[in-house]
Amino acid sequence: MGTPCDGGAVGGAGYGSGFALIVVLFILLIIVGTAFCY
């Protein structure tokens, strides 16, 4: 939401917003996975 890429994609087809959401979920998944490992 605060990234330039997401802000620039708002006026587009909304592809950038969906892609950013997937990236955030993927990063959260990695953080949770590493948290369980440690």
From TrEMBL:
Location of this chain's protein in the cell: Membrane
Top-level taxon of origin: Bacteria
Pfam families: YjcZ_2 (PF09680)
TM region positions: 12-37
Protein's UniProt keywords contain Iron-sulfur: no
Alphabetized UniProt keyword annotations: Membrane, Transmembrane, Transmembrane helix
GO cellular component labels: membrane
Entry keyword Membrane: yes
Family: Belongs to the SscA family.
Protein name: YjcZ family sporulation protein
Organism annotation: Sporolactobacillus shoreae
Organism taxonomic ancestry: Bacteria, Bacillati, Bacillota, Bacilli, Bacillales
